[in-house]
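FIELD: query
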Amino acid sequence: MASIPIIPVILAGGSGTRLWPLSREHFPKQLIRLNGDTTMLQETVLRLSGLDGVTAPIVIANESNRFMVSEQLRCVDIRPQSVTLEPFGRNTAPAVAVAALQALAVHPAAAILVLPSDHHIADPETFRRAISRARVFVAQGSHVTFGIVPTAPETGYGYIKRGAALDGGDESSQCPCAIDRFVEKPDRATAEHYIESGQYLWNSGMFLLDAAGVLAELKHLAPDIVEACERAVSDGRSDLDFFRLDPTAFRACPADSLDCALMEKTHQGVVIPLEAGWNDLGSWEALFQVGAKDDRKNVIKGDILVHDVKRSYLHAESRLIAAVGLEDHIVVETADAVLISPRNRVQDVKHVVEHLKATKRPEASVHKKAYRPYGATESIHNGTRFQVKRLVIRPGARISLQKHFNRAEHWIVVHGTAHVTRGEERFMLKEDESVYIPAGVVHRLENPGRIALELIEIRTGSYLGEDDIERCEDDYGRNSIDS
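FIELD: result
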């Protein structure tokens, strides 16, 4: 079995906002450190370490997150087979079809391990054993999904009803089973019935599939998806470290989940029960449940002062939170927003995000700190005709050669050494030195050193938007509307 490679397919293109204000449209939860020192994307790839026959992953991402995805993988020494960019979201069936096509180009007998990048698994070793068990069924032509043994009557998950037991077990055991049917998210009473029956598992959205086999069956069950994906891959192009699917072909692809397009229709489906401390961390309540508690059952992260607070989740990003007399509450602070909610109302955060989007407020989509391929920028203050930002440039990195038509910039080095291009001039700046860049002058900033370069940037002018930029040259293939 081990001679057949398993190519992980990491689905990293989501833009979930249920964990607002930490998670934003352009900074989704899989890119955040929520429950440890690594992000959820990094955890997803690292938990596969030690699993026999696993190769470098194929990562499916989107345009806006591409540099953060690439940088986070680099930080944990993961060199992917491909970071494939979807020009539009088309759900999981097209993403899996694209990945299967790419996997077959790597190895004609490859299996693909499809993993969302935003799941928490407390017991990676049990998870790895389940994958090893699934290989046997994939080698026999089955399509395997992993069903989570439920611990409560959750209404936020889909369920899988177990069919006949396989491997000689009985239907009440933890043995692999045929799939009787998939069911949508139930109401509370139905979920309680599912738990009592012992016949239902939570639908995890994780799969182990033979790449050739899944493509062959999708060609029969969803030919339009496979045809569009074949064109999108064949007409796609490499761009630096990324592979861009052809947008015209991919736009024509029907949107569908792998469950609907394949797993609900196939006769080859197998579900393997999994008890490994799985959680999709889809809400603040979920983070409260998995977090380390103090003696009053609180989860506390950041600079927090509490008095008579019980069973609450408090998270501070940029300042002190002082709380008195709270019970069963969520308090989350970022540099530009604070969320306060009873724990039993956290699902309603979606209404806040909907309002922010409807009123076109930036807090719906971006943070004050924005990650760039060269480092990061952070908004410190916005005034009338001026802005103050903090810039961080990674060692060896540089911003694009650029100019602005409506603003001037003043750079002050506070840490490290900067190499500056200003028109025809080239010179170095050390700490406590500064330079003025007039509007219309071509300029570039780069870090020639071995430590991060930090600057304060003061913008002045009649228009200070990020789209006031003309890139003359860029190491990262961006155009003037790219961040």
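FIELD: remark
The mean pLDDT is 93.
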